[in-house]
Design a protein that fits this description.
Two copies of one chain form a homodimer. By secondary structure, chain A is of the alpha/beta class. In chain A, about 25% of the residues lie in helices and about 25% in strands.
């Protein structure tokens, strides 16, 4: 008898997600009903947006106690009563923190083959990560050659791609990241023109030094005090790409009093928020370009793989501490048939 | 000998503009140089944005001690060594708080005749006021029929036009204004669907009651706590028109801690700031429509005229207290030739 292993939500989290917010359950798999599809989960991605899903007013229904923890996953169809999804097909969808997921298949998307790339490239280079960076830079930020682009959380999965895409567009790119190693990585390995270590230097002073002609495009992954600092240096007709979490709270948990919001008017700034789920139709345009840029050595990505479903809640800590190096992914199970592609 | 009367800036203001921030000067007019134009100032407008002009990082060079106080004015050319501007021509430009203005004429725009309307209609219905309301609603806010539009400072010059234009576009329009008389005026006289008296009721509760389906477009004239409140109710793909002053400070002078900025992402909101000076090319499109709507009785405007240059600094108090009824305008001098048109 096959058992399904799951992490359920044990309580409404307060502050960052903690292992004690989840509870482990093992239960036998039910026989598969008519029209249904059973998927074996291969990879789950861990992301700061996981925390947002507990909030009312998020872009998805809020998670509640007793739910399987939500996650975007890659899986392989193991058993199917749906002729559109044959066993062995590699799919993506919100399968969650569990070893087996069952649905009618309407929530699953078949993944294209990526010759020469591991399955995890879907998460590190394509998928929501790649689409967010692509859409944010190419469609919203629209940097012109020679313009100055600032990216926050620049060593993160989206930020590192966004900065590299802005470089491909011919912009001068300044990344804001936490700590000397991340700053070294984005400048030396990823080709950013300069880095600001927000943990080690005054962001306002560094922006003024590194952006003497102001900031044309700000790709914002953090909100709060960093958003306020960049708004102080934004140029006329500047654009703010509001991606992912726009925090009104600083790391201390204190609300931030903005002092530069009036520049939204004075500098005729457009701030545009977006959720990548609204733009999945971009796959056809964005994926070939992202893959081409990667193949040409102009767009690097990194994944940081945690092994085993049992280790997932503890791994979240690295996410909120910012100690992961690359897109954090959990390997839930391996399968030579699907995984070796 | 003709004397020029002027209000000069006496000191850098702190808080709202006060009469003591200005000093009176009378001096004889110099003979007019080659290529120059002398204008007699008829009307000056008084506006909350006057205060913004003292700030660095505003959209115009900051005013400093010793400058003639800046104001958008209507004047009539009195003497001219510039063949393009003949005496008797009615013009508009930044002439300032003075009875005579001298320049090479490059800063002046000839005003079109408005058959059947007084000269002050340029300020109440057209000019920066009308263009700001038109551009903000028609080009940025773009409300669809049946959508919900919220306007702050709704009894003000721009806000009252913006709300009426949104009604013309078929939207449901809620105005936020201070005090029962302003709320009565925008609903009973100007056709707004409902009003929120921010001085007398909780804005968040009133928004939830009056906008049960959320807010699609917010025409923001105030920023701060009201912006934050409306962001709490903004719908997916909502639009914020950031017009004029977007305050980060409340009336108390305290910075506001925003709690709903994350909705800019969660609700995929676009916030766009603009300065009407960038859109003066809209005159050809907007003026005929504004005049037609006014002639058809669908768009009312109000002006509140203060008499005499000497009374201008004291009149500013009414602006910051919000006790003016309609666009506040100072009559600097009268001329039957120009004024009676």
């Amino acid at each position: 008898m096959t058992v399904n292993q799951q992490w359920l939500i044990a309580r409404q989290p307060r502050g960052p997600l903690r292992p004690s917010d989840f509870t482990w359950r093992e239960s036998p798999l039910e026989p598969l009903g008519p029209g249904m599809v059973r998927t074996r989960v291969l990879y789950a991605w861990l992301d700061p947006t996981n925390r947002v899903w507990f909030s009312r007013g998020s872009y998805l229904p809020p998670l509640v106690v007793g739910d399987v923890m939500r996650a975007v996953c890659i899986g392989v169809v193991e058993e199917s009563n749906n002729p559109a999804l044959q066993p062995g097909t590699t799919v993506t969808g919100f399968m969650g923190w569990q070893t087996r997921s069952t649905s009618d298949g309407s929530d699953l998307t078949v993944l294209p083959e990526l010759p020469g790339l591991p399955l995890t490239a879907h998460f590190g280079l394509l998928s929501h990560i790649g689409l967010a960076a692509y859409h944010g830079v190419v469609d919203i930020g629209r940097p012109q050659p020679g313009q100055t682009v600032v990216v926050s959380a620049a060593a993160g999965a989206v930020g590192s791609l966004a900065g590299q895409i802005a470089k491909i567009a011919g912009a001068r790119v300044i990344g804001i990241a936490g700590g000397p190693e991340k700053c070294r990585r984005i400048t030396e390995d990823l080709g950013f023109d300069a880095a600001i270590d927000y943990k080690g230097e005054d962001v306002v002073a560094a922006l003024r030094r590194l952006c003497p002609d102001g900031v044309d495009v700000y790709f914002d992954n953090v909100g709060g005090a960093v958003l306020d600092a960049v708004l102080g240096e934004i140029n006329d007709f500047g654009r703010v790409v509001a991606c992912g979490m726009i925090g009104e709270y600083d790391e201390s948990g204190q609300g931030h009093v903005f002092t530069n919001l009036s520049n939204l008017v004075n500098r005729r700034t457009t701030l545009q928020g977006f959720i990548v789920l609204d733009h999945l139709d971009l796959v056809e345009v964005a994926y070939p370009r992202l893959l081409d840029w990667h193949a040409a050595g102009r767009l690097q990505y990194a994944v940081d793989v945690v092994d085993g479903l049992e280790n997932v809640p503890a791994a979240l800590g690295r996410l909120f501490e910012g100690t992961n190096s690359g897109k954090l992914i959990a390997r839930i199970s391996t399968d030579e048939g699907a995984d070796a592609r």
